[in-house]
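Aim 2 progress update. The chain analyzed this quarter is reproduced below.
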Amino acid sequence: MTTTLPSAPDPGSSPFRHELYPYRGEAQFLSGTLDFIHEALEGDEAVVVAVPSDKTSLLRGELDHDPAVAFVDTTTLGSNPGRHIAAWSAWMGERGEGGRPVRGIGETSWRQARTAALRSELRYHEWLLNRAFARSPKWSMLCTYDATDEDPHALRALSRCHPLIRRDGHGAANEVYLTGEEYAFEALPAPCDPYQELSYTNGDLAIVRSKVARCASDAGVAKDRLAKLAVAVTEIATNSIRHGGGHGTLRTWGQEDAFLCEFRDAGYITDAMAGRNRPGVHQIGGRGLWLVHQLCDLVEIRSTRDQGTTIRLHMDAAAQT
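Predicted structure tokens:
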């Protein structure tokens, strides 16, 4: 299934500044990020830095413990990019109390993204930032990217998600950004053989949970993670029954060091941000996909009006979230 979504906001119409900074080597990393930070401090802006630990050490060594600069640990989020937008909203919201402008610096450890599925979802997250923060006039973000020995096609794909690109110390319009174009997902690959398949409908939730638990256990998923997976599959199957035509199809299989379960139904998810924003305290409904993102190591969603919805849940075997 190939899915397209509405285009991201035109950079000229959005107050949110989203820049990509490709760099090569520590010296370039420091020069670009320090310029960005000093610009912020000169403008009495706060800064949130979420980069790998080695880059954190580099920056701390160059900064004089300025209280306006906060370093956050992204490892607490786990591997699922579906958790990142809510985290950035919280970090920047805390630092921007009283309407103070905030700049974020974020870097994903792309080389540690072991699978094509995770790399695809990481790129999608970068594109979604443009939608998530389109009406955030006090926020801006610099996404650093280590382009050393990197595939130029990978860099171009990531560039297409950023309205601005930083060159020579300044953010300039990015000529390859997907302005006015829809975001086209990569097609989901076919399940690995052998896979198990089950059709389900109203009254079959216990059967779905039992099937997933048995297959996941056979694939090496630990007991404590089986409990998380049971909650996640219940949420997805329930959504299929309530909103996806009353029935769906479950497929399960093992793939490398992970267990996958896929749900297909006739529903259509219209909100690209579904499951990405933390539900409000008094919010009624809309919590299922949020919870699934918190419980699973990766969540892939493809949804079109004519083909319905496919959701794949990934759970790493013998890993901890």
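The chain is about 35% helix and 25% strand. Helices lie at 25-42, 53-62, 84-95, 116-132, 152-159, 205-218, 223-243, 288-295. These observations will guide the mutagenesis experiments scheduled for the next reporting period.
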